[in-house]
């Protein structure tokens, strides 16, 4: 079995390869092709993977190429983790938004819209090449904004593209451990969009154990989301939100914290990863350099949000995410070996959530096997949740329309309709700022 990783020079690729190294079952991935537009990054990551595979006799073979068609032809799985514009693009997204007093996070608010406007045309073209060169391949999308990009690719690939994210899985594992449940056997009642979902229930057999959390103040504030949102607000909601909802529920505080920060998250990662790639190019031990950089990255995740909420430094348990690489491996095993698994995935809605149409890509628990994913029944969204999800989905649809038509007017509409952008005039200035920062947005015309 062959896996192609798009964005194969990206920093997180060793996590995926590490998961493959731990898989020794029949039908496993035996060949990995890395594709990236940056040859130097590809070389650096290939060195990290070589260090990882040292001493493992059956390690998947690794090839690297800058030729997209070569990477795709005949592959069985495609893992898409591209970053259009690189981390410099992310830093610019944050800077332009904060100058207008609105959030510039890479998947939420103005920053997410700008990232989507850059990424959707590229993802669309990639999907068309996959359809032409590897029509039987399954595509696992981790490219952000994951739900939006998955929906864009699904227009060409249908149900053969599946979006993944480690955020809801990490949330569920932290909650399960907090209430004394086994994270590997509980059934999750979770629904929403990517980076915009809520955990409504956590079941051991037929019993929902989530009420244990709300009944105990100490438990409720002992894990990351509890400290971020606070016991009072979680009880008001009656659910546990995905951590990214902190940007919505505490938006004013988050924006102020990001404006006051020495540098944005994107700028921090840009500097950090530039040092990493330079270090590896200079001959340092690639794996050690990568692992040190990864640990620093995880420890500083959502720093400003934790400062706003008084959550303090991340606990060791909190830094154990759901592991998107584990989700990707479980998904590939389920399809390739017909080993049924239950995973939270980004898939078409069908009839799952009443608030959205059938084609909308949502984030929901699914049962997946060789025939693909099937959404499982979940609690319907509350009025507040449905309203927020519907508003953000409408924004995503504007981004898709703008990317397809090249209409700057529709792009302004996407910014203006987002719940975290408070003025049409601000929306217009945002688009002007992003067009000045990103030559790739020149396709947007009045």
Fold and architecture overview:
This protein is an alpha/beta fold. It has 20 helices and 13 strands. The protein has helices spanning 13-21, 39-53, 68-72, 86-99, 109-133, 146-157, 167-178, 210-214, 217-220, 224-229, 231-237, 246-249, 251-260, 265-281, 286-299, 303-309, 324-337, 383-405, 408-417, 424-437, and strands at 2-6, 31-35, 61-65, 77-80, 138-141, 161-163, 187-193, 196-204, 207-208, 240-241, 341-348, 361-369, 372-375. The strands form 3 sheets. A 6-stranded parallel beta sheet has the order 3-2-1-4-5-6, with helices on both faces. α2 (39-53) links the parallel β2 and β3. The mean pLDDT is 93.
Chain-wise SSE layout:
Blueprint: E1 2-6, H1 13-21, E2 31-35, H2 39-53, E3 61-65, H3 68-72, E4 77-80, H4 86-99, H5 109-133, E5 138-141, H6 146-157, E6 161-163, H7 167-178, E7 187-193, E8 196-204, E9 207-208, H8 210-214, H9 217-220, H10 224-229, H11 231-237, E10 240-241, H12 246-249, H13 251-260, H14 265-281, H15 286-299, H16 303-309, H17 324-337, E11 341-348, E12 361-369, E13 372-375, H18 383-405, H19 408-417, H20 424-437
Write a short abstract of this structure.
By secondary structure, this protein is α/β, with parallel strands linked by helices.
**What is Rg?**
21 Å
Helical residues, percent? 40-55%
* Average of pLDDT: 93
| % residues in beta strands | 15-25%
Major sheet attributes? 6 strands, parallel
Oligomeric form: single chain
From the spread of the alpha carbons, the general shape counts as globular
The number of helices is 20
Which class do the helix and strand fractions yield? Answer: alpha/beta
List segments where confidence is low: pLDDT < 50 over at least 5 consecutive residues. Answer: none
Count the beta strands: 13
Query: Strand arrangement, largest sheet?
Result: 3-2-1-4-5-6
Distance between the terminal alpha carbons, to the nearest Å?
A: 47 Å
